[in-house]
Amino acid sequence: MKSVHYFICLAISGLCLLMTVLLFLVGQSASGLQTTLAQQQEEINKGSMSQQVGANLLRDMIQLAVTNNNPRLFELLRRSGISVQAQPAAPPPAAPQAGQPAAGTPAATTPAPALDAAPKAAPKNEKK
Fold first, then answer.
1. pLDDT digits 0-9 by tens, 59-117
2. 69-93: b (≥16 Cβ within 10 Å) or e
3. For residue range 29-66, what is the model confidence (pLDDT) as tens digits?
4. 3-state SS record for the chain
C-alpha cells in the first residue's frame, strides 16, 4: 500500500470517528431535551387535574349550599365572585297516565335545580 492510500484511509477513519462522536453528542442533547419535555408535560397534567378537582369541588359546594340553604356557603361563594341562584322547586309529579312511564324510571325523573355558577370578577380590595 502506497503512502497516499494510507493517508486517505487514515482521513476517512478519522472522519468516521468524528461523526461518531458528533452523533453521540447529539443523542445526549436530545435525551436531555426529552427529559425536560417530560417534566413540563407532568406539570401540565398536574395543573389539569387540579382544575378538574377545583371545578368538581365548586359544583359540590354550590349543590350543598342550594340543597341545605346554607347562608355561610352562599356568603363564601359570593365573596369568591360566584353568584348562585337556585330555581324554584318544580311541582310534585302527577300520577302517571296511560302510556307514560311510572315514577322513578329515567324518563320520569326530574332534573336537579339549575345553578347560575358563572364566576364574576373578584371584588377589588378597597383601602379603608
1. 898 888 888 888 888 888 888 888 877 655 555 555 556 655 555 554 544 444 455 54
2. eeeebbeebeeeebebebeeeeeee
3. 999 999 999 999 999 988 888 888 888 888 898 888 88
4. CCHHHHHHHHHHHHHHHHHHHHHHHHHHHHHHHHHHHHHHHHHHHHHHHHHHHHHHHHHHHHHHHHHHCCHHHHHHHHHCCECCCCCCCCCCCCCCCCCCCCCCCHHHCCCCCCCCCCECCCCCCCCC
Kindly list the domain boundaries of the chain, sorted by start residue: 3-83
Q: Which three cell numbers, joined as nine digits, stand for 89?
A: 322547586
